[in-house]
Amino acid sequence: MSLVALLDDAGLTGRGGARFPTSIKLKSALETGADLIVNACDGEIGVHKDALVVAEHLDALQHGADLLARRVQWAAHRGSATERRLRNAGLRVLPVPSRYVASEESALVSLLHGGRARPIMRQAPISTGGKDAQGRRLRPTLVLNAETVWRVSQIERHGAAWFRGYGTAEEPGPRLVTMGGNVDRPGVYDSEAGVPMRDLLEAAGAVDVRGVGISGMSGGWLRGRDAWAATWSDAGLAPYGIPTGTGAVHVLGRSACPVDHLAQIATFAAGESAGQCGPCMFGVPAVASQLERLADGVLPAEEMLDLHHRLGMLPGRGACRFPDGVSRFVASGLRTFSAEVDAHLAGECVLMQERAGATR
Ligand code: SF4
């Protein structure tokens, strides 16, 4: 059986967040003789699983990469322990700046072709090559996240049935989950779709849970009571409009202000974009500024409508999906923590008043 057919049988989807079927990507890459970039950057906030795969499963990871392509580059953040591990193993490393969008698929391809680590406009899928919007010729390139490549190696070794022994029929296979935030035992956990989120929270030692952020800046939020009751799968989180995505779970404790947290992340986002598209140059910084004023309790209630309007204007207008993710993440937070938002608008947020008192 061909590797494409085997991965199709297994139902492997990308573990980097998008969940695109790996067999389809590989089929197209094999037709064009594409190079492979193994993305070990852990580019999403709060995700550490690819670092773990490199640290603990490098032989299997290399085997997976060898199955997929003849020419392989290993993308890792410059100066990271992952980069050192890959170099020590004698692998060809593509050093990536430690910026949020620098490890986006097309940004890695741009970097590989001598350009800047910025997402690029293109007319065809990266795996088919062609030209970018500036007319630069791009070699066909398959970009897969490190956990995905490790899973390819496992499927080749243990078979599709073994892989389907984990997860659900619609979302098969083992998955890594990174637990962080207000937990006693942060770290990367083996998991699978269909397990109760309670199991993940208890394994990481979460007790005090105001809310849970899923999949970093490309995901959204659950209230604590919903997180304890939810199922860990795309289907289980669909009622909340959140994908499991990159598999990051961030626990926000009761002593944390979710509005302040949203403002901090949005401000971080405003500084991380490549600043080459309208929504990132103007929209994301404006959203961050409004959230900061909301967190400080000085945003007039009338401006909330404007904030929601701005969020609605972000998706689908950039060269990459970064502004789409920021919009979904912030909108989900405002919806999930509507009681805390209302308290901020009314100047009644206890946490906000405590902070103001501490700085006086
Ligand atoms: S949408 Fe934003 S992050 Fe994406 S390429 Fe444009 S400026 Fe960069």
Global outline: globular
* CATH homologous superfamily annotation of the largest domain: NADH-ubiquinone oxidoreductase 51kDa subunit
- Which residue ranges are poorly predicted, with pLDDT under 50 across at least 5 consecutive positions? none
The number of domains is: 3
Strand content: 15-25%
Helix content estimate: 40-55%
User: Helix count?
Assistant: 17
Second rung of CATH, namely the architecture of the largest domain: 3-Layer(aba) Sandwich
Average pLDDT for all residues: 91
Cofactors and ligands present?
iron/sulfur cluster
Q: Report the major sheet.
A: 5 strands, mixed
Q: Summarize the helix and strand pattern as letters.
A: HHEHHEHEHEEEHHEEEHEEHEHEHHHHHH
Q: How do the strands of the widest beta sheet line up side by side?
A: 8-7-13-10-11
What is the number of beta strands?
13
The level 1 CATH classification of the largest domain is Alpha Beta
Distance between the termini: 70 Å
What does this structure look like?
The protein is α/β, with parallel strands linked by helices and 360 residues long. It folds into 3 domains: 3-163, NADH-ubiquinone oxidoreductase 51kDa subunit (Rossmann fold), CATH 3.40.50; 165-252, Ubiquitin-like (UB roll) (Roll), CATH 3.10.20.600; 258-359, Up-down Bundle (de novo design (two linked rop proteins)), CATH 1.20.1440.230. Helices cover 46% and strands 15% of the residues. The protein is built from 17 helices and 13 strands. The chain has a 5-stranded mixed β-sheet. A 4-stranded parallel β-sheet has the order 3-2-1-6, sandwiched between helices. A two-stranded antiparallel sheet has the order 4-5. Helix 4 crosses helix 7, helix 12 runs antiparallel to helix 15 (322-336) and helix 14 (303-313) packs antiparallel against helix 15 (322-336). It binds iron/sulfur cluster (SF4). Residues 101, 118-119, 273-277, 279-280, 318-320, 322-323 line the site of iron/sulfur cluster. Iron/sulfur cluster binds next to helix 13 and helix 15.
